[in-house]
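User: Please work through this fold.
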Amino acid sequence: MEIKPIATIKNDFTSKFAIPRQSGIADIKSEIIFEKEYCDENAVRGLDEFSHIWLIWGFSENIRQKHSLTVRPPRLGGNKRVGVFASRSPFRPNNLGLSCVKIEKVECGKITVSGADLMNGTPIYDIKPYIPYSDSVPGALGGFTDSNDFHMLTVVASDEAKDTLGDRWQALEKILQNDPRPAYQNDSGRVYGFSFADFEIKFTVDGDVLTVREVKNERN
């Protein structure tokens, strides 16, 4: 089967580091920009009657020649292995992702959404409406995620850093609270850095406290 993108996503996640591990964690706005042949109002007719959609997309930055049958989920501390099909690891046989996002606005050629866990420029292969009566299963089991709570960090940042980020600060704080570091790294002396929108963010983690060390505007 050959598939091709119907759209790409545009947002502030300019690098893989610090992208939320699941959709809905951070209220980041994204735009789904359709390819020319799908820029027709008929393609999205009726979609504004739904609140959420499923995105089927490609892990375009995770290119590997070989794939392991087991992975180390962050929820298990990055040390215990489970089968790749018992995880949502980005390293999958066919590099396909599935995310549920909230619709903010539907337009011809573009859908604005929030809560995406996709990197800027990620190809979208299909879009389907989220249907509560069939997509939400009462009493469903969450496997290892039910018994292993994800540990949240306390984020400390200066007023200057917050002011520099402006209305992006709240979304970034949520990302940092969820600990964007690889699960197997716990070095209190290490300075981590990543790009977010037009900014370079640097931080350290000591115990349960994440401290934002620098927020630099990359355009300056």
